[in-house]
Backbone:
């Protein structure tokens, strides 16, 4: 179950996205989600070389200017970023606006400023998030799997 951390990045995420020591973070990816014109989620993978924490309450993004993600942000600005770090999953919700004239400074990429609306932290003592979208069950795996099977069965039985 996730819990709200308010509108600020916790220190571990701030350090991860601070733009420092990028060579040590080359294998790290973030999943950026926007909403397309049809109302569907639209995912895009970003590296730490495309996201910068501007202090604990704002992010900056460098994106391809004609990408679907950039078009979605120009239309409504809403985004979420999902990432796994330190055994937990985090979901960062923000509202972006394009930064005028950023393309000249970003080698043709569009720049977006994204004040953070909310950060959610998600974790459970019985399952540690080991990497993006991968879990390692750490406490009584058989009980957890049994719960999952029960839940899936219940979902399948819904009218």
Residues:
């Amino acid at each position: 179950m996730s819990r709200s951390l308010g509108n600020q990045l916790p220190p571990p995420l701030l350090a991860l996205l601070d733009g420092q020591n990028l060579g040590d973070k080359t294998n790290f990816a973030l999943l950026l989600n926007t909403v397309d014109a049809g109302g569907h989620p639209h995912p895009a993978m970003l590296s730490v070389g495309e996201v910068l924490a501007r202090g604990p309450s704002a992010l900056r993004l460098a994106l391809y200017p004609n990408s679907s993600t950039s078009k979605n942000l120009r239309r409504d600005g809403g985004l979420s970023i999902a990432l796994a770090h330190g055994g937990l999953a985090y979901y960062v919700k923000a509202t972006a606006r394009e930064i005028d004239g950023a393309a000249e400074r970003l080698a043709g990429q569009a720049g977006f400023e994204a004040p953070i609306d909310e950060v959610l932290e998600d974790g459970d003592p019985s399952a540690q998030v080991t990497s993006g979208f991968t879990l390692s069950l750490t406490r009584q795996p058989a009980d957890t799997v049994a719960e999952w099977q029960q839940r899936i069965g219940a979902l399948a039985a819904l009218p």
Observations:
- Confidence is low (pLDDT under 50) at residues 148-159.
- Residues 51 and 87 are 21 Å apart (CA to CA).
